[in-house]
Amino acid sequence: MNCIIIDDEAAARAVVSQLCSKVPELDVIQEFDNAIEAIKFLNHQNIDIIFLDIHMPGFSGIDLVQTLKNPPKIVLTTSDTNFAIASYEYEAIVDYLLKPITFDRFEKCILKLKKEETKKSTAPKLEEKNSDVNEDLYINIDRRLIKLNYNDILVVEAQGDYIEVKTEKKNFRVHTTLKNIKDKLPENIFFQIHRSFIINFNKIIDIEDNSVLIEKNVIPISRSNRPELMRRLNLL
Amino acid sequence: METPNINYINELAGNDEPFKNKFIEILKMEFPEEKLEYLNNINNNRTEAGSQNVHKLKHKFNILGLEESYRLAVIFEEELRLGNDRLKNEFVKILDKIEDYLKTI
After folding, report:
1. Is the pLDDT reported for residue A50 higher than 70?
2. Which position among A120, A187, B47, B52 has the lowest Cβ density within 10 Å, counted as fewest Cβ atoms?
3. How far apart, in whole angstroms, are the C-alpha atoms of residue A110 and residue B93?
4. What's the CA gap between B5 and A223, in Å, rounded?
5. Among A84, A118, A152, where does a domain finish?
């Protein structure tokens, strides 16, 4: 992870730089004693993390956060607790380190940053899938492409080399696998409840011990998928 | 009055003697400049600017293990911001103590 350090005090920059040197994943690209020079640098250089002092003359750390359009992850370094609450207003601010910073506290901050990095790398996939909500799926029946709205699909059942897509009005038998259709359906609506069944979560009428009722269809719940089903239910 | 120490610097440096030396050099260079700027402002009744100086200086108190002095600096910074310099004599004693200490390391 590439980082820069912004602090008007040389001693404070030296502390953060020394702490960074103890973490192999961190690479300090440059240090700045004012925010303006850092902004110029950030205009033509991508970095992962900014260690940023809040209290600087002229242009403060918070001014810098507000200025950056797509800020990287920011860790505030300050001797003021007063800004702690304000810092949570900015999504880019991951942590808040009080001076003098100890290595134990710094390590916790790095763990937090790593978690944020993991979230960042998985988030686009979820967004991509979720962006399909309220869109349609086309299925190939006898060389005709039939449009199905996600909200009309109740259940999808595997039947050998085919799947049966059950909607409120009609059922469609399609030559494909359950895995294929599962990959195309949005995860926030559909759930594979059993080796042979995917259900539309919004269509559940009730749940008994080992089965789910969707319209007139009683769908078995596999033992392995039950915990995930229970986790996703909004239980009272 | 509590006395300055380099426990934090030692902990930060570990076995990194070059860092320790470099860091002490930075303190020796930066502290007198900050002190001078503070005295200039406070002697000319520029309390708002003095408050900014105290903010910077109090970080050095932390680094040198001066916890009581740090607490005093927090109050003084806020009071100066509001134009009240009643703690200036106590504060300058701390600065003098640090200056003397830095000459010994």
Report:
1. yes
2. A120
3. 38
4. 63
5. A118
Residue A32: inside a domain: yes
Inter-chain touch B62–A57, beta carbons under 8 Å: no
Same domain? A10 vs A111: yes
Distance CA A12, CA A101 (A): 9
Distances (CA, A) of A225 to A210, A221, A231: 11, 7, 10
Residue A129 lies in a domain: no
User: Mind telling me how many Å the CA of B81 is from chain A's nearest CA?
Assistant: 14
Question: What residues of B are in contact with residue A102 (Cβ under 8 Å)?
Answer: 11
Q: Residues 34-93, chain B: which have Cβ within 8 Å of A? A: 52, 55-56, 58-60, 62-63
Cross-chain Cβ contact B11/A57 below 8 Å: no
Checking if the pLDDT of B45 tops 90, the result is: yes
Q: Look at residue B74 and tell me whether its pLDDT is greater than 80.
A: yes
pTM of the model: 0.65
Q: A97 with A146, same domain?
A: no
Residue by residue, what is the 3-state secondary structure of A165-184? Answer: EEECCCEEEECCCHHHHHHH
Residues A24 and A109 in one domain: yes
CATH of the domain at A26: 3.40.50.2300
Residue A127 lies in a domain: no
A55 and B16 in contact by Cβ < 8 A?
no
A107–B contact, CB cutoff 8 A: no
Do A147 and A95 fall into the same domain? Answer: no
Supply the range of the domain harboring residue A189.
136-232
Which of A192, A178, A195, A186 shows the shortest CA–CA distance to A228? A192
| Token representation of residue B27 | 């303190």
pLDDT digits 0-9 by tens, A119-138: 766 655 544 445 444 578 88
CATH number at residue A224: 2.40.50.1020
Give the position of tokens 């300090």: A28
> Cβ separation of B56 and A8 shorter than 8 Å?
yes
ipTM of the complex: 0.92
